[in-house]
């Protein structure tokens, strides 16, 4: 048994998820491929969104995958870092905006 | 950023035999990854055979004004291998009788060969359909004696193919040296000003993109769109097509991969992206590479690895196009670089 929960080599085995359920696995990977095709958003824009989300959900596989994907697409490190700050701002903002609830509660209870 | 070639530094990787050893040992010897010959055999593509020679690629010397981190030639100002006029005359005899539709001059910086202009002058008289010169752009700005080259190219209807690793200064200069981006932009403006790269212009100007690190190039068409958008918006520069070329794990790029501990991961990514369709159209099937000293190779990469063609004819002076047909192509693990993803060649993607 491996000594850590994450192994970078496991990313390459993602497709094997289908081995235990072909139907759902296929539907998922077909959907996944379709999502990243160029549409109203470019593939490049989708790659940056994926990178930001990867950091938000703190998925090491996704961070690995979409950092590499971004480099292949010619996305610069400046663009990558800005995308991450968007994720961080939303994530931080999500904590802070709940402060309004705290303030409401304090205002209601406090004399 | 390196400033001297591997040869000048007397690096062990300046030795092509050492490079071939590395490419055959480790993960390939252990069987963790299949050797290229075994991989193409899976799809009945071994031995890889040549077809009709369509592209004659002549390397007129390894001297260059730049020392790029990824250079497969190990080119630089310190390289002294330069094609002589005598060898050029032998090449001209072949150019006159070849059935190839494309003549492709490369280097180093081909313009640094002292007989470059004479050779272009003579070769252009033959009337070959597509006459390419691979220019690194900065050479046009490096010295006054090269400043009129755009006009010279135009007067000989030369198809200019130039390296441009990114549309931003940071990524370009990191790979090719400080100041390369600004000089390249100025050179592209000069070329545009006389009609090169303009819409509907017959003066062809294409750019070559190499990834600036241990990763594969993305989709060539998507990259071309991004390059075009950025270059027109930022500098009002136009060009025709972008060729996305994969860095092959030889010479200085191999040195970089090993030094940065990226070699194994890079080879894994090449093998995982292996595309049998790309094998059908790899450039060695329709290209013949001629070295500065007149020897013949299946491609510029084999030239640098000193892997001569599998034929009795070894030198341009003995050239016989009929006898060179249907050769077995000499391969090693570096060939995975040309068969990954959409494939890679000096003309960009092949699949």
Would you kindly provide a brief summary of this structure?
With 111 residues, chain A is mainly α.
Structural overview:
The complex is a heterodimer of chains A (111) and B (351). The longest helix of chain A has 21 residues. Chain A has 111 residues and is mainly alpha-helical. Chain A is built from five helices and no strands. The mean pLDDT of chain A is 95. The termini of chain A are far apart. Chain B has 13 helices and eight strands. The two termini of chain B are 33 Å apart. In chain B, 51% of the residues are buried. At the A-B interface, helix 3 of A face helix 9 of B.
Fourth-level CATH superfamily of the domain at 36-109 in chain A: AhpD-like
Order of strands in the sheet with most strands of chain B? 6-5-4-3-2-1-7-8
* CATH class division of the domain at 36-109 in chain A: Mainly Alpha
> What is the radius of gyration of chain B?
19 Å
